[in-house]
Amino acid sequence: MRVLVLAGLVGLAYSQSCSTTLSGTKYPVGGVCSSWASQNSVTSAVDCPPNSATISPADYQISACKCIKGFYGTDTCLQCAPGYYSMVVGATTIATCTQCPAGSYCNVTNEVPKPCPTGVICEAGSVSPIPCPAGFYCPTPAAKVTCNSGSYCPPGSTQELGCLAGSSCSNTSVQVVCKAGTYCPARTVTPIGCTAGNFCPVNSSVQNTCPAGTFCATPASSTPCPLGSFCTAGVTVPAPCNPGQLCPEGSNQSTTCPAGSYCPTYDSIVPCPPGASCAAGTAAPSTCVAGQYCPDGSMTAQLCPLGYYCPTTSTAIICPKSAFCPPSTLAAPTTSFTWCPISVGDIWSTTNSTAATSYLRCYCPQGTYGRVSSATTAHCIRCPVGQYCPAVHTTCSCP
Of 178, 202, 338, 387, which has the highest C-beta tally within 10 A? Predict the structure, then answer.
């Protein structure tokens, strides 16, 4: 309010802003000079009504007060509504208030619209910029576009973003990492569940076949096949191994225990011990019986070899010279060989070499003649004096 001179007596000092006459008054824009007492030509400075002002400094009537920019009216100046502006001085009707255009904002009614920056939305009549809301993108401050399915638009987006592989966008305002047990190709709205025999860890874009050597009890992960089982690709339950098979942890197939060894556990191979045999697929060795020959690492039990005798199931000894080892007795317990038969007069028959299998290999020794009749009988006769008999002579015609 400008300073007023409120005088009740004639002759008081005049206003600093008004002269003693109504003519030639000089007063700043926005106020008027009114008559105090016409008879004394005394005037004082008076403010214009709220939100009004004079246009020139020489105005002295209250009628010279006009509504300022952003206001309108006659007796009272009313402000334009929020989101509207007016650059007209002295406006008398609301029609002079103009709505703020889209892409701009009007936070003061007596200023021109201000352009909005990118990433915000200013619809027609905006008082202030607001960030482009989630689920929408704003290519210009004047346009708000709904985010399409399979895309997402966080607050302040100027363009929509395609939902990345490994994530889903059921809500167009945010991208969510695909959970374990599901997979999400690019632009997925709803995660897809992994099917049996497959697994999908967190952030999967495709489902993965459960690899050989593992099983997938749940679609979230794969687990190494346990000891004693094997797992082909794409299984949900391990397959059990049979005894005598090799199935260490992580096996994708069963392996038969090799012949000549036995497999007491599913992950160990032990050479077959002496005195036992181990066929392929054996979990425990088979004990050989007397008369059989089973050396270290035997795949099958065999009879004691011809020309040998077997005092134990793991030992084979070649039949010595002058003895024989009949095969017919090898299946029975054999702890010794059989000497060639002796004839009357204590003449022992003999063999020419070791490893004889029958008494038929027994002959009368050198210096005698005759024959071996059976496994227990020999007819060996000494040569007469003055004669000699080489070995293997069966008659008495010594030269």
Answer: 178
